[in-house]
Design a protein that fits this description.
Chain B: GO terms for molecular function: ATP binding; phosphorelay response regulator activity; phosphorelay sensor kinase activity; protein kinase activator activity. Chain B: Its EC number is 2.7.13.3. Chain B: One of its GO terms (cellular component) is membrane. Chain B: It catalyses: ATP + protein L-histidine = ADP + protein N-phospho-L-histidine. The complex is a heterodimer of chains A (167) and B (718). By secondary structure, chain A is an alpha+beta fold. In chain A, 24% of the residues lie in helices and 36% in strands. Chain A has one domain. Chain A has four helices and nine strands. The longest helix of chain A has 18 residues. In chain B, helix 1 packs across helix 2 and helix 3 packs antiparallel against helix 8. Chain B has a five-stranded antiparallel beta sheet, with helices on both faces. The radius of gyration of chain B is 70 Å and the shape is rod-shaped. Chain B has five domains: 152 residues, no CATH class; 130 residues, PAS domain (Beta-Lactamase, 2-Layer Sandwich); 112 residues, PAS domain (Beta-Lactamase); 74 residues; 146 residues, Heat Shock Protein 90 (2-Layer Sandwich), CATH 3.30.565.10. Classes of the chains: A alpha+beta (167), B alpha+beta (718). At the A-B interface, helix 1, helix 2, strand 4, strand 6 and helix 4 of A face helix 2, helix 4, strand 3, helix 7 and helix 8 of B.
């Protein structure tokens, strides 16, 4: 996330609180674990609001962003979920790598999205600060503005430090 | 202070300008950004909105403060405030109403435009296209699934060792890109490929394996870059003894012409549905943007209205203020306006008028001061001339009466000024001949001369009147009458004649007196011893008589000289009490004379010639003693005092005798030389006293005292 965006998010917090009476988050970081092949992976719990599901089915691509800070370095990963009406499939894509995968069902696509590999060595031992949120700034233009005032489009895990309690 | 206020105004102006520009930029960017496909400023929307809100709040605060200030000015009834408020409301009405109408119209138009983009035929066509695409793919998918199931059935009838041969044969039959047999652990048991990009079979996704386990065969469409392929799976059922779980996987191509069409349909449908979904959001965004622009327009209009009305009204307020100041007699110029319009011309004209008024007022004040000076000069002249002056206005009222007139007529100016001539005559009956004659002459246009006798006055007197008609400022005809005491004029002429006589007498008589005296004394010395006693006695008495008479003549001649040749007094500061004491000391040897002295406390300083004043006192005391010559115990009272009068203080010396008093017809104003009430008087004593007092700016007063005797008072400026 850019610094401008961060400031904007901070400034927005007050506005959002006034406009919405508090933001409801549908994404939660459940666990950070090491996979069988030694990869560090985030386990998420995604609960898309009905409005968002409706938007997804009506062609709105949902961009999710994972911000990570470890060993004093920051990195950002993006994944995009979209629905393909012709094949009735859900496509999960990583814009940075061009990798994409199609799923016949939304649950399968969400299950794939809920496993988010981190670009860290498997033997990494230090604290990791992670935040996963819906990238509202990449929503289609009309929605990007109105989503500022709609808490259904405010998916944000908040910053989670792993292992818990470390800073 | 002025520069700080200017800087503050500049700062406020810059803030306002920056705010308007920032809001404009934010509105324009949002308007542009939020209506295109992807929001480039999406991440900054919250910050932009917060910034816009903060700036709008600041702008609103500035405006609110200015409106409050205006309301306070209206309440305080400051010049121009009400006009300013009216102009503000007018400008606002002009600006706000069209803006609101435009806002509603634009919103309605935009909403209508957005809704019109989702026409039913377009939606139906896209749905149909999508259905066609789906049917085609379904058909292809069913074919692929069927072909793969056929391969699986053929393989199930062959030993695994022949599977490779069979795959090599069948790949061309089914026109697949790749055909392979995968074991349950994912290993490839046999495979054939018709495309170098599809050499090795991929492990099928877990979800396909799950569907395979329930359905026995499955086929899905997959994207490979821009191309589409069909992946089909079928279970190879060869019996329980053989390789259970082997799967045939075949990849079939979708015709290349179909893939871009399918992509386009996919994208078009997705975008169309997205737009349909975003319809509400688009309307909200437009309402937000238009609202932002409207707020900007309204705030800017309000601010411009505030500033514009103030700018318009400021010269008017200055004019009103300056006009009120002119009413108070303050003439000031307004700052020269930089504007080139009617208001600017008005300010310039006002400045010119104010300057001319100021100049005219200064001119009037100058002339008024000159007039006052001339009036004061005239008053001084009138107050000090010996002739009496009376002025009448066109209606016959007394406008002017100088001190000499007051004295000569014996009236008080305060009682007379403003009164009609007839009223004056009624109040002072002795003056009726005077007032009647002037009344008769009041209509005369030219100069006139008259003599009027006031027989009823005490003492009776004759007045010489010289009149002249005067034109009043209001066009009426007034009269200026100058009059003198005819007796006093004659007396003056007589005094001059007598002075000439005295001078000649003194000259003619004084010269032979000394030889006569010397001759008489020589006769006496030479013949007194030679003559018989009888003759000697005659000679003694005769020469004695001659000498004493010559002495008397000398005294008389000296008095004539003093009268005939008056010298200007030599004025120095002298103490009146001390002078009186010195003079009285010379009479202390007279045992018969009893002197009563009543001097004022302290000392009375006057500017006078000490020798002449001493002479005056001698004359008065000598007169008093002579008046009491027949009394066995003459009593002389001498006193001094200081009396406050209108134009300062007057010192007074009174010499009173207790003799028979002054004759009934004695008039101090009618004293003439050589007329004495005493048998041996020269008639010059009081005349000389009167002259000396006049030379000193004083006067002589005489009268009979209560209880007998006469008093003579000397009045001198103290």
């Amino acid at each position: 996330m850019t610094s401008g965006g961060r400031i904007g998010a901070l400034l927005f917090t007050a506005l959002a609180l006034v406009a919405c009476g508090g933001s409801a988050s549908g994404v939660r970081i459940v666990d950070l674990y090491r996979t069988a092949d030694g990869q560090l992976e985030l386990s998420l719990r995604l609960d898309l609001p009905a409005t968002m599901v409706q938007g997804l089915l009506r062609g709105v691509p949902l961009g999710f962003q994972c911000e990570m800070q470890a060993d004093g370095r920051r990195s950002t990963q993006r994944r995009e979920l979209r629905f393909l009406p012709l094949s009735r499939q859900y496509q999960l894509r990583e814009p940075a790598t061009g990798y994409s995968r199609s799923y016949d069902s939304r649950s399968a696509a969400l299950a794939a999205l809920e496993r988010w590999p981190l670009p860290l060595d498997g033997d990494h031992e230090g604290a990791v600060r992670v935040r996963v949120h819906l990238d509202r700034g990449r929503l289609p233009s009309p929605l990007a503005l109105s989503a500022v005032f709609d808490r259904d489009w405010h998916l944000d895990s908040g910053v989670v430090t792993w292992p818990a309690g470390q800073r | 202070m002025a520069s700080r206020a200017t800087l503050s105004r500049w700062g406020a102006g810059l803030l306002v300008a920056a705010t308007i520009i920032a809001l404009s930029v934010a509105g324009l960017f949002l308007a542009n950004d939020a209506t295109v496909g992807r929001a480039r400023l999406g991440p900054y929307y919250p910050a932009l909105l917060v910034l816009a809100a903060v700036l709008a709040l600041a702008l609103g605060t500035i405006i609110a403060l200015q409106v409050l200030r205006l309301l306070r000015a209206v309440r305080a009834r400051q010049p121009g405030a009400r006009l300013n408020a009216r102009l503000l409301w007018l400008l606002l009405a002009i600006g706000v109403l069209p803006s609101l109408i435009l806002f509603v119209f634009a919103l309605n138009f935009l909403f209508g435009t957005v809704d019109s983009r989702f026409a039913a035929p377009v939606t139906s066509a896209l749905d149909d296209a999508l259905e066609v695409g789906r049917l085609y793919l379904e058909e292809r998918r069913a074919d692929a699934e069927e072909a793969t199931a056929g391969i699986a059935r053929r393989l199930s009838r062959l030993p695994p060792a022949d599977w490779q041969q069979e795959l090599d044969n069948v790949i061309d039959e089914v026109a697949a890109l790749q055909v392979g047999v995968l074991a349950a652990d994912g290993s490839v048991r046999a495979s054939a490929s018709a495309d170098p990009d599809w050499l090795r079979p991929e492990t099928p996704p877990e979800q396909l394996r799950l569907r395979l386990s329930t359905d026995g065969h499955v086929a899905v469409v997959e994207s490979r870059g821009d191309a589409l392929v069909l992946r089909a799976l079928a279970r190879v059922d060869v019996g329980a003894l053989l390789a259970v779980g082997d799967v045939v996987q075949a990849v079939f191509p979708v015709p290349p012409r179909y893939a871009p069409l399918a992509h386009r349909i996919d994208r078009a449908v997705a975008e169309y549905r997205q737009l349909d979904f975003l319809r509400g959001a688009l309307k909200v965004s437009m309402a937000i943007i238009l609202g932002l622009v409207l707020m900007l327009v309204l705030l800017a209009a309000l601010l411009l209205a505030l500033r514009g009305s103030r700018r318009l009204v400021t010269p008017v307020a200055h004019l009103a203020e300056a006009t009120a100041a002119i009413g108070r007699g303050e003439y000031r110029s307004l700052p020269t306006p930089s504007r080139d319009d009617e208001l600017g011309d008005l300010v310039i004209a006002f400045n010119r008028m104010s300057g001319e008024l100021d100049h005219a007022r200064a001119d009037i004040l100058g002339k008024q001061a000159l007039l006052e000076a001339q009036r004061a000069y005239l008053d001084a002249v009138l107050a000090h001339i010996s002739s009496a002056v009376i002025g009448l206005d066109g209606s016959g009222r007394v406008r002017l009466l100088n001190a000499a007139a007051e004295q000569l007529l014996g009236v008080n100016g305060h009682d007379v000024i403003g009164a009609e001539l007839a009223v004056l005559g009624g109040r002072y009956p002795a003056l009726q001949p005077f007032t009647r004659r002037i009344g008769e002459r009041r209509r005369d246009a030219g100069d006139w001369h008259e003599e009027v006798r006031l027989d009823e006055a005490v003492p009776p007197r004759a007045l010489l009147l010289r009149g002249r008609a005067l034109v009043e400022p209001d066009g009426g005809r007034g009269q200026l009458v100058v009059f003198d005491d005819a007796g006093a004029l004659g007396r003056g002429q007589r005094e001059a004649a007598w002075a000439e006589v005295a001078r000649r007498l003194a000259h003619e008589i004084k010269n032979p007196l000394t030889p006569i005296q010397l001759a008489a004394e020589r006769l006496r010395r030479r013949y007194l011893g030679r003559l018989p006693p009888d003759d000697a006695d005659v000679l003694e008495r005769a020469t004695g008589t001659i000498v004493s008479q010559v002495e008397s003549l000398k005294t008389l001649v000296n008095a004539f000289s003093d009268y005939a040749r008056p010298q200007p007094p030599r004025r120095v500061g002298i103490g009146l009490n001390a002078l009186v004491g010195d003079v009285l000391a010379l009479y202390g040897q007279d045992a018969r004379l009893h002197v009563e002295l009543a001097l004022a406390p302290g000392e009375i300083m006057v500017e006078a010639d000490p020798d002449r004043l001493r002479q005056v006192l001698h004359n008065l005391i000598k007169n008093a003693i002579e008046a009491m010559a027949e009394l066995p115990a003459p009593r002389l009272s001498v006193g001094t005092a200081v009396v406050a009068v209108d134009d300062g203080r007057q010192a007074m010396v009174e010499v009173r005798d207790h003799g028979p008093g002054l004759p009934a017809d004695f008039d101090i104003a009618a004293l003439e030389p050589y007329r004495s009430s005493k048998p041996r008087g020269s008639g010059l004593g009081l005349v000389i006293v009167q002259r000396i007092m006049a030379e000193h700016g004083g006067r002589l007063e005489a009268g009979n005292a209560e209880g007998g005797g006469a008093y003579l008072r000397l009045w001198l400026p103290a």
